[in-house]
Amino acid sequence: MAAAESYPEGLKYHREHDWAKVDGDEAILGITWFAQDALGELVHYEAPEPGTTVSAGSSYGEVESVKAVSDVIAPLSGEVLEVNAKVVAAPETVNDDPYGDGWLVRIRLSEPSEVAGLLDAAAYIEVVAEQ
Amino acid sequence: MQMQTLLRTPLYDRHVAAGARMVPFAGWEMPVQYEGVIQEHRAVRGGAGVFDVSHMGELEVEGPGAATFLQELLSNDLDRIEPGGAQYTLLTNERGGIVDDLIAYKLSPHRFLLIVNASNREADYRWLKERESRGSEVSDRSDEYALLAVQGPRAIARLGLEPAAPFTFAMGEIDGVELMVNRTGYTGEDGCELLCMAEDAGTLWDTVVARGAVPCGLGARDTLRLEVCYPLHGNDITQETDAISAGLGWVCALGKDFTGAEELRRIKEAGPARKLVAFVMTDKAIPRHGMPIEGGGEVTSGTHSPMLDVGIGLGYVRAADAAPGTGITIDVRGNPRRARIVSKPIYNREEH
Known about the structure:
The complex is a heterodimer.
Chain A: E1 12-14, E2 18-23, E3 26-31, H1 33-39, E4 42-46, E5 53-54, E6 59-65, E7 69-73, E8 78-83, H2 85-89, H3 93-96, E9 105-109, H4 121-129
Chain B: H1 12-17, E1 21-25, E2 28-33, H2 37-46, E3 49-52, E4 57-62, H3 66-73, E5 86-92, E6 98-108, E7 111-116, H4 121-131, E8 137-140, E9 145-151, H5 155-158, E10 169-174, E11 177-182, E12 191-197, H6 201-210, E13 214-216, H7 218-227, H8 261-270, E14 274-281, E15 292-293, E16 297-305, E17 310-318, E18 327-332, E19 335-342
Helix pairs in contact in B: 2-7
């Protein structure tokens, strides 16, 4: 079942519809409810290799629905520690649970100060409202 | 930026009310999906779905010379069908290129209905009108009609219709709406296309949905046709591609004379340089229109197959590489991804 629209408090958001859950010098990244709804049911996740570096504001992978391809933008910079194998095997997990089981990568932050530049839930909801 | 007003079918308000996502398509504002492409696709393969295809064009050709006129312009042989019969055929140019692919319905020996692609309606009309000869009158009737495609193994039963042979049609009535029931479609499933007057479209749509056909958008229409390898004009076949290379020699009656026949006979004789093939990804990736195929080819249509759960597509490859079983490499945004050429159709309902 597709998830209901939500933008949890406690996550940090990038205006390209990506979220980060920061925990010390690591973060888990994913795409927001808005992004997965715009794409429709996901059928492919082109994931980065563990060990590669991602940089804030740049694409680190792709997600595809039947009709569309979308770059996934990194909200923060760092090194990929882990790719969510569940989403590689079953991309629709992102539609079912975009902030939980549907996370995309776990990274080690290289520039922790970037966190301060991200949006909180309230600010991101304003971005969504403008779309 | 050039702004253009999009056309709307008589069912626009119903689509919006049903929560459809509306997108521009061939100058029309059309539903791409209601609940989701994959769900809608499976509804058609497993039961029944209904598509608003009122954006398609209806051209009528009438008169004592109509049959002769169309025989000179269409690739297939209209003499092979009787009134009540329909035929898949091509409007070809002098170079053997494809102006459009369409279905011709023989209403009488002197009256034909051509149901054509929305994107080519005006071009087709002009093409025919410019070549109109004495004794044949071409008219564009598209604005008068609405067209609903009701498709799926349960479609005919849910509409309360009797089974009939594919590529036939009859005048009929469903819950008080008079219509033409065409045993044709674009999904590879049993079903029909219902042509009614534009003002009756809402009533007919409501009836068909109440009888259990799931509203489906253009997204599912595309994945369904691609699984069964029906070409899409503008992608897989164009004015620049010929019927022989596209694997449509079977709709070209090369024994008669029609526009481009000579060139098509020459291509058939010499063998085409490229062929339109179907392929299935062996690497995990989704092919898309325009992606290069290594060795000098190109993907013309690509998607994720909801039934096979794998990337599938159509594309042109060198004729020497076109045999089923051949491996090909597709450039997926800079990454080489492997695929295998397969026999058409990619999805065969008898096997599933």
